[in-house]
Design a protein that fits this description.
alpha/beta; Rossmann fold; 2 domains; 6-stranded mixed sheet; 5-stranded antiparallel sheet; 6 helices; binds adenosine-5'-diphosphate; binds magnesium ion
Length: about 230
């Protein structure tokens, strides 16, 4: 099921510091939108609002017809049907790769008989089928991020959220994983918001680039499939 995302007049402040100022944004169902901008411009804050990790001071957020946040109220992350990938992977070190990936299925009470298949499919999609029994510490950074990606997609969420997932990787790996994620996102067709400060990453991955500057949308453009500006 494809979900649109709509923000109406969304603002956020840390004390006297206004971090997001009256953001209006509509994201089409199934599109991949990159939120691009320099450090400190409010990208992570906007993503955390979409995830339900924090609530707006003003404005409303809808996923399709469903209100998920308004001033002082927020539907919690586990009730939003989202998958998230962070810069630091955020894997559980004591669990194996397969247990990490299975976790969202347990949270959603997916039948035990179905879990193994779903985990195997997700690990296959990210090229990690042989690593199911390993612990995260035994994997490279790129492999750990693939595990995090498998965990984000395994429950087939309606929205995928990424916060600079490639920033900790070296440039060669960043490039190849970026291309793979672009392919995967096309295959899945899930509505996705991808935060990055790297313009090239945004151009490879996204259908549309929204430039954030000091808490406001400074530019908003569509990208053709060849990676050039439309
Ligand atoms: P980005 O992800 O684009 O680098 P952030 O959304 O993390 O930006 O931060 C936006 C602004 O909010 C920055 O000015 C930052 O200093 C401030 N900020 C972020 N987190 C906090 C916090 N926990 N407390 C106070 N200010 C914060
Ligand atoms: Mg950030």
């Amino acid at each position: 099921m494809l979900t649109s995302i709509t923000l109406n007049g969304v603002s956020y402040a840390f004390g006297a510091n206004t971090v997001l100022n009256q953001i209006d944004l509509h994201i089409e169902p199934g599109s991949v939108v990159a939120l691009l901008g320099p450090s400190g411009c409010g990208k992570s804050t906007l993503l955390r609002l979409l995830a339900g990790l924090t609530e707006p001071a003003n404005g409303e957020i809808h996923f399709a017809d469903r209100l998920v946040a308004k001033s002082g109220w927020s539907l919690p992350p586990q009730a939003r049907d989202i998958g998230m990938v962070f810069q630091d992977y955020a894997l559980w070190p004591h669990m194996t790769v397969a247990q990490n990936v299975m976790f969202p299925l347990k949270m959603r009470n997916v039948a035990r008989s179905e879990r193994e298949n779903r985990v195997a499919q997700a690990l296959s999609r990210v090229g990690l089928s042989e690593f199911a029994g390993r612990k995260p510490a035994g994997l490279s950074g790129g492999q750990q991020q693939r595990v995090a990606l498998a965990r984000a997609i395994v429950a087939e969420p309606r929205v995928l959220l990424f916060d600079e997932p490639l920033s900790n990787l070296d440039s060669e790996l960043r490039e190849s994983l970026c291309q793979e994620m672009a392919t995967l996102l096309r295959q899945l067709g899930t509505t996705a918001v991808y935060v990055t400060h790297d313009r090239r990453e945004a151009e490879i991955l996204a259908d549309r680039i929204v430039h954030l500057s000091a808490g406001s949308i400074a530019a908003d453009r569509l990208i053709s499939t060849s990676g050039e500006y439309a």
